[in-house]
Amino acid sequence: MQAVIFDMDGLLIDSEPFWKQAEYDVFTSVGVNVSPDLAGLTAAMTTKEVTEFWYVKQPWEGVSLKAVENSVVERVKYLIETQGKAMSGVHDLLISLQQADIKIGLATNSPKSIIPSVLQRLDIADYFMTYTSAEEVSQGKPAPDVYQLTLAKLNINADQCIAFEDSLGGIKAALAAGIQPIAIPHTDEFNHTKFDLAALKLRSLTEFNQSMGKALLPQK
User: Which end of the chain is more exposed for a tag (fewer CB within 10 A), N or C?
Assistant: First the structure.
């Protein structure tokens, strides 16, 4: 195992509530009726895709889609920088990987401007060799592009890398890039069969040890 790539939202940082709050605040401010059922469909989308989703459902006037998208991002950044907390096991796992000289990367659908806010808030920036946002590639997850670019930045082959993900879209993206994904589902989704696609499923990062990762990869 030469590298590990992490998802970000809901995996490194408990930021999912921030996204929900920011999207609710911003979209309702332009007249959108943000229903829980429809909001649930946008969880794995990029911010651009979420903005387009709501505009198609309930078009607004007077404010551009880009301005609305930027407002969501800025609101999330503020919430992360003032309230963000690491998910269980993040710091200990990063320390152990660094001590083992394993390369560490990050691949996320979130806007690139949010990544430094997360890494600085959690005080984990020094552990990551590189990070990639879906803004840098043609398609976000579940397409493999964001993982493929991260692998290239790390100069690592997919068969010597594992990924940690908390969503089905992320798991599909890792698999499509040839990477073995480990699922860390949210507690209320842990038993959902959709996570059977993952190579391994754990309740939190605290359960992981490096022998688990090595067992998923071809031995060289």
Answer: C
Residue 171, SS3 per DSSP = helix
Residue 28, domain extent: 16-83
Out of 9, 25, 159, 188, the active site residue is 9
- Annotated active-site residue 9? The verdict is yes
Q: Cβ–Cβ contacts within 10 Å for residue 79, how many?
A: 17
Residues 20 and 33 in one domain: yes
* C-alpha–C-alpha distance, residues 119 and 108, integer Å: 13
pLDDT tens figures, 120-153: 999 999 999 999 999 999 999 999 999 999 999 9
Catalytic site residue from 7, 25, 92, 123 = 7
Place of tokens 């998802």: 7
